[in-house]
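Subgroup meeting minutes
Present: P.N., E.W., G.H.
Scribe: E.W.

1. P.N. recapped why we're keeping a running log of single-chain structure predictions: easier to compare across weeks, and new members can see raw inputs and outputs side by side.
2. G.H. added today's entry (167 aa).
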Amino acid sequence: MMAYGNLTVMFPELFINSDFDAIYRDGDFETCIESFINNYEKEVQGTELEGMYLVKENSLIETRKGSFIKGSEWGMSKEGQVPVDEYNKRKGKNRYVINISRGCPFGCPHCLIQLTEGKKERRRDLDNLEKVIDKIKNKYKHIKIWAANFTLDKEYVIEFCKMMKEK
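Output recorded in log:
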């Protein structure tokens, strides 16, 4: 079992006496989870893994730094894999959330983005984003766009808005 989220980044020691096998530390969560899954049944020491702490014998074993992937390689959840509709029912919403950027060059002291997503901002390219939106646009009333710094790249925002108006 693996834990992920801000708590694992800020207070990893809280997980020392837990039933978790690993906790997320840094890098894109997809690479961290993939590393964990690919090595789950192997007897690993930590060097084969990335972006996490292994929880073993009441201690945390740090693995190598997590890696980052290009925005064009970010996927979207397979339909039915994430209970989006159930979440929407509970919250009284009809929306789908799309991550369009990760990372931040600013490093505000209250924010974890640099720790978890890196200092360099990366964006989903517009062709990839258009494909994602095409898959969901008739299923949801609202599309929520997540970006730590949406307006950081003015030209991207202009092109994004043009695409959204056309779609």
